[in-house]
Design goal:
alpha+beta, HIT family, subunit A, 3 helices, 24% helix, 21% strand, globular, binds guanosine-5'-monophosphate, binds zinc ion
């Protein structure tokens, strides 16, 4: 496992293929796979291959990685057929944000109308 991944991190292990997942899209910097507990017809997680703990740990050096996450999100939306009707991208941060896996990830959620504000 490359140095920038963490042995005990669920999403590091998923992106490396050590734990099975249902892939949707990927490139050199990112991996997108279906959420195990979907909240909508489309619920895909987009993660950087490199371990970044959460949004607050993103640094200027991560710019290419964040851009790749945005690009992969666009690809996921197009492939899943939600680009035209619209979808939501969610980043949970910390305890109040509801983060449960400590590896930066975008939730890409769609396939039905979504209420606002959330909860
Ligand atoms: P968070 O709550 O950290 O923003 O989101 C973590 C997401 O990871 C949750 O939506 C949860 O359903 C999903 N998840 C947790 N464990 C697994 C797993 O083993 N495989 C997949 N595909 N998704 C997972
Ligand atoms: Zn990780």
């Amino acid at each position: 496992m490359p140095e920038e991944t963490e042995r005990d991190c669920l999403f590091c292990r998923i992106q490396a293929g050590d734990i099975p997942s249902d892939p949707v899209a990927q490139d050199d910097l990112t991996y997108a796979f279906r959420d195990i507990n979907p909240v909508a017809p489309v619920h895909v997680l987009v993660v950087p291959r490199q371990h970044v703990g959460h949004l607050g740990a993103v640094e200027p050096d991560h710019a290419p990685l964040v851009a790749a996450m945005v690009r992969t999100t666009q690809v996921v939306a197009a492939q899943e057929g939600v680009a035209d009707d619209g979808y939501r991208v969610v980043i949970n941060v910390g305890r109040h944000g509801g983060m449960t896996v400590d590896h930066l990830h975008f939730h890409v959620i769609g396939g039905r109308p979504l209420r606002w504000p959330p909860e």
